[in-house]
Amino acid sequence: MDILEETGLVSAKYVDTPMDPNTKLLPNQGEPISDPEQYRKLVGKLNYLTVTRSDISVAVSMVSQFLNSPCEDHWSAVIRILKYIKGSPEKGLL
Questions:
Q1: Confidence of residue 69 (pLDDT cuts 50, 70, 90)
Q2: 3-state helix, strand, coil in the chain (%, to 5)
Q3: By CB distance 3.0 to 4.6 Å, which of 9, 23, 84, 93 could disulfide with 18?
């Protein structure tokens, strides 16, 4: 999967849920990320993926709210979604 290669997550461990239920994402939460364009591209790809992966729709919707000024916590949430996708490739629609 090229998204995993782009982010260096090919050998990362996967997680069981796309988002930590105890995480609350807020605007300007933490340090701004150094490359907001990479965040926007990744969230765009994830948004496209929700067409066949409805299990990530809520999580992608949440991280999509911060496209204008993404911070480290928002980036961590995107990485968690990618780790979830890596561990559950069979959950797409057939």
A1: very high
A2: 55, 0, 45
A3: 84
What is the pTM for the complete model shown?
0.88
Q: What values do phi and psi take at 3, rounded to 5? A: -65, -40
Output the CA torsion 21→38→30→69 (10° steps): -100
The pLDDT of residue 92 is 63
CB 12 within 8 A of CB 53: no
Burial class (CB in 10 A: 0-12, 13-18, 19+), 6: middle
**Backbone φ, ψ for residue 60 (5° rounding):** -65, -40
In a domain, 63, yes or no: yes
